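dude i think i finally got it to work??
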Amino acid sequence: MSRRTTGTPGSGIDCVSGTTGLVGRVDYQRRREALRDWALPPDEWDALVSELPPLPGPIRPPVGDRKRQDASVYIWVQVTQGEHLFAPRPIEAEQPQHVQREWALRRNTTWYNLVRPDTFRHYADLRKLLAEYAQQLARDIDSGTGRSLTVNEQPDAHAQ
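look at this
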């Protein structure tokens, strides 16, 4: 297997060639730059949560802006391989201070439920959808095509 470098040193564009062809090295800096102020757009969030299977019983987990923000962080981590603590939180930043404090208090619990292997069914189903979305978003960024990477406004910014 031979190694060749394209681009500038440290740019993350090294390729390894072997019998299976070229395998590109992921440019995580490019991905982080593309997602610098990113959040899952409301229409795409609505489409994702509409795919969640129904849960038995009358209780429905909330799927408002707070969970959309947490889902955005999860996707950001999957795409950039960054630490969730450093992910942008543009939806949260648009909220009044008291709402930001409430969201911050729930942040660790939601994150724990999204990443733990034996989580509640709602979070396991959501994680699967978010992982698929993250894979496609990463491909879109890497290829320079695909969906818009801007923050979309939502009419009810205070929804949970």
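Confidence is low (pLDDT under 50) at residues 1-22, 150-160.
im so relieved honestly
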